[in-house]
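Input.
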Amino acid sequence: MAGAVLLCSPALTFLPVQAAPGPAAPSAATSVTPPALPGSPAGPAKATPPASSPHPPRKTLHDRLVEAEKALAKAGNEKQAGEISDRAEGLRSRALTGSVQMLISDSHDSLEKHDFQQAQDDLTAAITIQPDQSVLYRQRAAIRLAAGDSNGAIADLGVELQADPGDPMAWGMLADAEHDRHEPEAALQAFHQMLLLNPKSPDSDKQLKTLEQARDGQQD
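Output.
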């Protein structure tokens, strides 16, 4: 919003002038201001206030998430990677409302009872409340993947990765979904992307070997 500029003119007070019979010499009480010398300021010197250092702009939630994702790619060991991954997950869920978090909790309870439809319905209701929170699509993708709906999971993961391409968990789930669809090449591509984002992912060597064997078996 553009700010309006208010131009204020100082109020001027004019005093009545009385005519004098002749020029009068200035009295001792009258202060006479000497003319300003060339190159000198025309008035009393004013102290220049020190310039205040500007505060750096506050980092947004997205900026902090991107920083965490970059740090995860450079993690030195599996423990450090786990701590950074947990921090990134907390940032992804930071903006979720209380009602959405309650629906997520209900969805988890239904999932433990193997009620996949109810678990998916709870996540769909959460997405309806906060459609801009892409992490909810990833959570629904996990339910669809557990229920055997690989195509539905891939559709949800596409939404999440479009908004947050640095999410290694989503890339790992995409590899699982493509593997379930018997698309080993696509599964390997997704898994390699996951490894770029989280090189210290637990059991990654074992998972990579499984996907490579699936690809090599189809090529034969």
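The chain has a mean pLDDT of 83.
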